[in-house]
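Problem 12. The chain below contains 170 residues. Write out its predicted structure in token notation.
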Amino acid sequence: MGDTAVQQMLYLLHAAFEGQSAHTEHALLSNLKSVKDDEWLWVPAKGGRSIFDIVRHIGECKYIYDSHAFGDCSMRWDLPGSIPTIEPGQAPAQIIEWLKAGQRTFTEHVQTLASDDELLAPRKANWGEEYETRFLINTIIQHDLYHAGEINHIRSLRQETDKWAWQLGQ
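Solution.
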């Protein structure tokens, strides 16, 4: 069966996280680049989460999904201290590096898949059930894109640029 599908999964993981070529506007890191230092902890009116909260959630999910799908399942939501995390007030550069480390760990494990057949192999999800490996990888891909959109929206509300480019005269 070769490893074409594994390579495609790796491509999509990278695209959702960092972007590809000139088309990076939907990627997670691209949306974080325009967040100013004082915007990380801001919560919109009637909102419940800051950009920091969302980024912490994204990163912790990368670590815990990896622990369950490819590791020893030692990281658990109900076991404080078992998941690498970040704290409010950390410098954005530190936060981004922590996020990249979680992505790197997950991606390195996907790279170890010997063939496309392994994408169909059952692996544990962090909630205890087993799913095909490709389902878990796809969940991380979609998770990055979903939350990148949330980050974009919160940032644009804070910067008062929540309009289409043509409305802003760009």
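Discussion. The first strand starts at residue 122 and ends at 124. Students who got a different answer should revisit the alignment rule from Section 12.3.
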